[in-house]
Amino acid sequence: MTTTQQPSEGSTDILRVILAILLPPLGVFLQVGLTLHFWINLILTLFGYIPGIIHALWVILRK
User: Fold this and answer.
1) Of the N and C termini of the chain, which has fewer Cβ atoms inside 10 Å?
2) Could you please report the per-residue DSSP string of 11-27?
3) 3-state DSSP helix/strand/coil percent for the chain, to nearest 5?
4) What is the pLDDT of residues 4-49, one digit of tens each?
């Protein structure tokens, strides 16, 4: 018999951080959905990749 395991929150955060580095708006979207933070991150990423990454990491890692 096999059991399915849900990913722990720590491993999910690691995945979101990796996505935030590659595609910052996607990492934010997975964390908060289509909220104001997503749109802010999209604009920051369009203006500059680094500000988008910084904002995405802030959104994902704050708790």
Assistant:
1) N
2) HHHHHHHHHHHH-HHHH
3) 75, 0, 25
4) 656 666 778 888 899 999 999 999 999 999 999 999 999 999 999 9
- The pTM (predicted TM-score) of the whole model is 0.80
* Residue 63 structural domain: 33-63
Give the Cα-Cα-Cα angle 15, 17, 23 (nearest 5 degrees): 95
Using an 8 Å Cβ cutoff, are 24 and 52 in contact? yes
Residue 54 resides in a domain: yes
Q: Is residue 21 part of a domain?
A: no
Structure tokens at 60: 């994902």
